[in-house]
Amino acid sequence: MNMDEFRRIFRGSPVKRAKLSGLLRNAAIAMGNSGNRNHLPRLRELALHENPAVAEHARWAIARLETTPDVDR
């Protein structure tokens, strides 16, 4: 999702206050907690994100998924 899509989809929504970076950060946390290693490719992309909080949480999620059993949901 790019910034224009985010603005269009969440216009007038409370989610807009979290901003796209907040949404991506929270998604990375959810992916890390899911136990599903199918998320690793997207998390590796997010680990290179320009926003330090997004990148940091994506790296955390990668580490968590790589050290826990695969749930494959």
Features:
4 helices; 73 residues
Strand-helix topology:
Blueprint: H1 3-10, H2 15-34, H3 40-46, H4 52-66
Kindly describe this structure:
- It is built from four helices and no strands.
- With about 70 residues, the chain is an all-alpha fold.
- Helix 2 runs parallel beside helix 4.
- The longest helix has 20 residues.
- The mean pLDDT is about 90.
What's this, in brief?
This protein is an all-alpha fold.
Our measurement of the CA-to-CA distance between the termini, rounded to an integer number of angstroms, reads: 23 Å
Question: What is the number of helices?
Answer: 4
What level of helicity do the residues show?
55-70%
Order of H and E elements: HHHH
Cα-based radius of gyration, to the nearest Å: 13 Å
Give the overall pLDDT as a whole number: 91
Largest sheet: none
In percent, how much strand structure appears in the residues?
Answer: under 5%
- Tell how many strands the DSSP assignment holds: 0
The parts where pLDDT drops under 50 for at least 5 residues are: none
**Given the C-alpha coordinates, what overall shape results?**
elongated
Structural class by helix and strand composition? mainly alpha
